[in-house]
Amino acid sequence: MDYVPAKPALILAQHFSAIAAAGPIVGPIIACLWFGWLPALLWVVIGAVFIGGAHDFFALAASIRHRGTSIGEVIKKYMPGRSYKFFLIFVWLALEYVIITFTDITAHTFKTNIEGAAFGPGVAASSVLYLILAMIMGIALYRGKLALWKATIIFLPFLLGIYWLGPRLPNQFLAPLSALSVKQWDVLL
Asked: What is the tally of helices (H) and strands (E) in the chain?
């Protein structure tokens, strides 16, 4: 079984970040760039609330009814061998597609320089610092047994500082990041 107990607050945060990835963030940005603000708003309302929310609710309900197992384990119980394997292949391909898309979007964000915007190497620097901070917080929570509310109070100012500091780092720190091409960022990410 692939069940790992977690605190409800962490599960809620993970769920919100997961649903906010493909649909409600990338979709509206693309819709707004191509078609204006109304399609972006409709995408958020219809896509996130009615489609994404309903999908996630029923996936969570199915998981809860089966002792917190993953959808793969739930499907295994109800589908015969070949159908189950095709389902796993479909899920794997869909996840690969999403990972490749997000990686490429992120790599382009790291390389794009728009006058007056904090894109390019500054975004890359903020992202790297953010990942380091997340690892430190994870160690503090699970190895150091720090309470979640205390960790939030301690690490939130650091997070805000990272967002402020990243684009303002001196050029000698950002030069190695700006030298990478989009394809190199894809591989690195």
From this structure: 10, 0
Per-residue b or e along 15-29, where b marks 16 or more CB atoms closer than 10 Å to that residue's CB: eeeebeeebbbbbbe
Distance from C-alpha of 18 to C-alpha of 21, rounded to nearest angstrom: 5
What is the number of structural domains in the chain?
2
pLDDT tens-place string over residues 21-51: 555 556 666 666 677 778 777 777 777 778 7
Angle, helix 8-19 to helix 53-65, in steps of 10 degrees = 140
pTM, 2 dp: 0.56
Q: For residue 146, what are its two tokens?
A: 């720090």
Domain end position, chosen among 18, 51, 69: 69
With 0-12 / 13-18 / 19 or more C-beta atoms within 10 angstroms meaning exposed / middle / buried, residue 102 is middle
Domain assignment present for 74:
no
Are 25 and 62 within one domain? yes
For residue 142, the enclosing domain spans 79-189
